[in-house]
Predict the 3D structure of the following.
Amino acid sequence: MFFEDAYQIFSRPLSNVDCGEKCGPFNEYGVPVCCDINLIIPSAYKEEWEFLKEKTDLWQPWSSSNPIDVDLENDIQDGQVLLKCLGYQYCQRSFRTLTCRAFPFFPYFDSRGNFIGLVYFQEYRELCWIISNLSVVTTDYKADFQQAFELLFKQYPESKESYFQYSSYIRVENADSGDKIILLDFEGNVYLLDPDSEISHQVGYEDLESFGPFSITNDLIFPDENPE
Ligand code: SF4
Ligand code: SF4
């Protein structure tokens, strides 16, 4: 079964830090941001949903009576459905969707169609602690990410096309805003990528910006983090 295999490949957490404890305190009721249905509605491929439905009671289809929310269904990739889980206290890690596992990243393609790394969703940069602390994302996680998405692209070529289009959209958005794209490759390096020329320059993680509440907390040393 394809999703069973993909889940096995892509099962490691993205870092050795429990990052839900880093972003949760800044979110309502302490809920980790990517598990808060008020902020992010998880999506799954229809076949993935069929697989999950058979295996677990963790998920149910998401629905809303608010007409504004109908737009959300138009925003997801073709062949996907929106889902709602039981909540972070009842998470079953082995049945997290691919989108749960990938957050806050998406597979980034250059304009020649090469899958060259991971880029984060910019709209979450003031909410997701990882985005302000990219150095903690392990190389093992990035290798799993690459392998799982390559499998997905083989099985569902339309998903490759969607991420290719999305990457191109991000280049246009960043060119308009004047922002560079921050790209993590699969070897542990990080680059600032010019959205117009697509020329990238390697930088150090310590050179990257942090955002929102995390720009303050990164400057503080907490007693339990002091190496002394
Ligand atoms: S990935 Fe980001 S949003 Fe999700 S738990 Fe970690 S820090 Fe929070
Ligand atoms: S399945 Fe787990 S990781 Fe995914 S949204 Fe629910 S609580 Fe979060």
